[in-house]
Amino acid sequence: MLEASISVSMMKNILKGLQSITEDCILDFSKDGLTVHVVDSIRAKMLRLKVIPSAFESYTCNEKHRLAVELSKLKAITTSLTTKDELKISYKDNKFALLANNMERAIRLKKIDLVYDLRAIPDFDYEWNTTVSSAKEIKDYIKTLDKIPILQIGVGEQKMVWQTLDAEELISWNPNLEMECEEEFTATQLYTAAEINACIAASTKEEVALCGGSGSCPIQFTWTPYEGVEYTGLVAPRM
């Protein structure tokens, strides 16, 4: 049995993050909270969401439940809700439902074997890591690119530079941060701006931890929009 209450703003944030990657996913509820792993159709980006029990307003789950859902059906009941409303999540007697404002929305579950079942995000030998003070800085840079699809991220000499490829109309961003990497390490990788923007869609002004490497190693973004809620996103470089 699962019974939980969650703030509307947190639920909307969760749906925004997951829907930026996919429309179907598997919600893993357990005594340790909620975990979701999603990947897009071309395997260009992945996202892991972790919500510990204390992040919910109330949370009771006495066994594991893996629920395959269509996210738009969850979003439908939250659209008209405000931050003052209470949203409840329940699963019992094989029935999954959301309850708010005296309305109950039963959610028809999908067959779990019809939804891509990503159990974990892969581990990589990351060669550098750093922290950007606000996700807004990343989003502002990508917004500045307008319709420019590809950007380059260079790491080396204890700094990071994001820039476009057209030298005559260069748009660059050199954030003030501290890099952790080998003294002589350098790497330059190409990324699709839209993929990065989608991966961090659920972020606003939170501090973002980044790490990456060279070759086919992805760039990883980790942030915490609410206490007890953590996102980790991966974006693959263009090869």
Characterise the protein shown here:
By secondary structure, the chain is an alpha+beta fold. It has 2 domains: 2-114, DNA Polymerase III, Chain A, domain 2, CATH 3.10.150; 128-235, Roll (DNA Polymerase III, Chain A, domain 2). The chain has 4 helices and 18 strands. The chain has helices at 8-19, 71-78, 135-144, 193-199; strands at 2-7, 24-30, 33-39, 45-51, 58-61, 65-70, 86-92, 95-100, 103-107, 128-132, 150-156, 159-163, 172-173, 180-181, 186-192, 208-212, 219-226, 229-235. A 9-stranded antiparallel β-sheet has the order 6-2-3-4-18-17-16-10-14. A 5-stranded antiparallel β-sheet has the order 5-1-7-8-9. A 4-stranded antiparallel β-sheet has the order 13-12-11-15. The radius of gyration is 19 Å and the shape is elongated. The N and C termini lie far apart (46 Å).
